Amino acid sequence: MTLTIPTNAPPAYHLLVKPTGAVCNLDCKYCFFLSKEMLYPGSRFRMADDLLEIYIRQILESHRTPEVTIAWQGGEPTLMGLDFFRRSIEYVAQYKKPGQRVVYTIQTNGTQIDDAWAAFFKEYDFLVGLSVDGPREIHDTYRVNKGGAGSFDQVMRGWEYLKKHGVAYNILCTVHAANQEHGLEVYRFFRDDLKAQFIQFIPIVERATAETLPLALEGWRERPLYQQTGDLVTDRSVGSEAYGRFLIEIFAEWVRRDVGQVYVQMFDVALGSWVGQHNLCVFAPECGNALALEHTGDLYACDHYVEPDYLLGNIRETHMIELIASDKQRQFGRDKADKLPQYCLACDVRFACHGGCPRNRFSHTPDGEPGLNYLCAGYKLFFHHVERPMRIMANLLREKRAPAEIMKLYAAEDVGLDVEQFAHVGRNDPCPCGSGKKFKHCHGRR
Ligand code: SF4
Ligand code: SF4
To answer: 227, 283, 302: which to mutate for ligand 1, most atoms within 8 A of CB?
Structure first.
């Protein structure tokens, strides 16, 4: 039967698929998603094989772009075992349209990765998102196993296998009370020790009400179902201004030595905004094209809204593209723009921020209007701080030059020298600041 794609359906969309639902072998203290097990009492939390086939067929036949991303997430998706993912590759081969290119991603805590997993990821060019919160002491503060012990060693073992097999990886670092004051240390650990070229910093904001806060503070397992309600946050959550300072501290290092070498999602996305592109739903004017698929086939508006009010339907009964194009989902996406408070509408960095993600809009503006993003103060700090360098890099891009050229400008300004003196310096040359180190290794240029 030929599929009729609704006219208002997006040509491409992003689906985070949770083949084990919320089930995970770790027990990270801030992971409210663990509580989502309660949505499916009695479930085995394993995506059935026929559903896997339905999912792959539907996502491939309903994309109208040459590239399709198959994105696995959890819970911990590797708990499904390798055979499940091998079958997914077979279904892709079966349903791929001529000319279609499939990109595979998986977000994992890394603890299950061994030779076999890493070889598989390499064979099919997976981009592996590895969750690490920083060096051992920081990482182990919240990222613990079921017995309460830190998971750092297990994660590093998984990372070693990824390195050994040459798998592409992306470090996913959550930012919270335990690492918010250690931005530079965390960043250098990823760059220098983990040799990371792609890094994402994800703020932890655990919402709670006065009733749920005491339980939330103990963690989310066996706790009330996490829902996007309440205007309180747990003490593990990142502070708003602290988040801004964390990013600024890292930016100061990145803009001086790592532009073009290390991709920090937040910086890339900000640069996109300065050239008029919106590459991440959080900072786009509208959203609604990044959904979540549960192990049962239930499709939800977003990974952050896996809760009953945001259930769109089940892909066994209704094709996912109809659910994605539904009035309910389109309205969900438009609400991001429609529900901005006046304070955001008048904000000078709205073009880069767009009010952030609706899930965090539970604060009040200075004049008392509800709907302001909890992270607003941090966003303002960051976007104002990077205004000049972003303008410079955006201009370089418009002139078809590399944004990395900005590093020469900073190098010159930092030591009070004329920028021309740095124009010829390569990354492996001695740093002209006189430190005796290679330019790319010199921390002392400020
Ligand atoms: S609710 Fe937030 S995370 Fe979800 S799609 Fe919208 S902006 Fe993105
Ligand atoms: S920085 Fe604050 S006021 Fe400005 S758009 Fe973002 S959330 Fe709104």
So the answer is: 302
